[in-house]
Amino acid sequence: MKKIMLLSAVMGSLISINAFAHNIQPNQLLANVTVSDKGEITLNGNDVAYKSWSSTALPGKVRVIQHIAGRSAAKEKNQAMIEAIKAAHFNQAKYQTTTIINADDAVVGTGMFVKSSAEKGKKENAHSQVILDDKSAVKNTWGLREKDSVIILLDKTGKVQFVKEGKLTDDEVKEVISRATALIAK
Asked: First CA to last CA across the chain, in angstroms?
């Protein structure tokens, strides 16, 4: 019985540590990170180009950041959040969605599909910021889990107002939209 209790305590602590493995703190700036291999996808007409991206460029607008592994399962996890953002029709002068795709965390052999999907996403949502991270720079710097998705809400100064790894509940999606709306109105 003592062994079972000890094992349960150890497993419980490991699970709780894993649940909060990231180093992102409320009311703090995100750790600085630069993605220079690939990076931010830009458009010149219908032509796609890449430029180095740094998290130091995040302040200035309210943002929802979606960091996702380059896997369809990770992308689908928080699709409800993305649909809610689209439905909210936020003022583009004060708000921007930033999607960071960890192409290094993709199923073997799917890298070209991940890149193509990221470029297509940028073309469909030209006002959004899309970053392709080929070296897991963001995941490693922010201490994020593999094969997963994280949603982060930043105020216009770049401070974290909400963060959650994994699938958001319907109430959490509503909370992010409500908080973003209030931050944009400031």
From this structure: 56
Q: Is 78 within 8 Å of 151 (Cβ atoms)?
A: yes
Q: 112 is written with which tokens?
A: 């070209």
What does each of the 186 residues of the chain score in pLDDT, given as a tens digit? 554 444 444 444 443 334 456 899 999 999 999 999 899 999 999 899 999 999 999 999 999 999 998 888 888 999 999 999 999 999 999 999 999 999 988 777 677 888 889 999 999 999 999 999 999 999 999 999 999 999 999 999 999 999 999 999 999 999 999 999 999 999
- Enumerate the β-bridge partners of residue 50: 41
**What's the half-sphere exposure (Cβ side, CA atoms, 13 Å) at 51?**
6
Structural element, H or E, at residue 142: helix 137-142
| Exposure b/e, 130-158, CB count within 10 A at least 16 = b | bbbbbebbbbebbebbeebbbbbbbbbeb
Task: Give dist(CA 182, CA 185) in Å, integer.
Answer: 5
- For residue 173, the Cα-to-chain-centroid distance in whole angstroms is 14
CATH-assigned architecture of domain 24-185 = 3-Layer(aba) Sandwich (3.40)
- The DSSP 8-state label assigned to residue 92 in this structure reads T
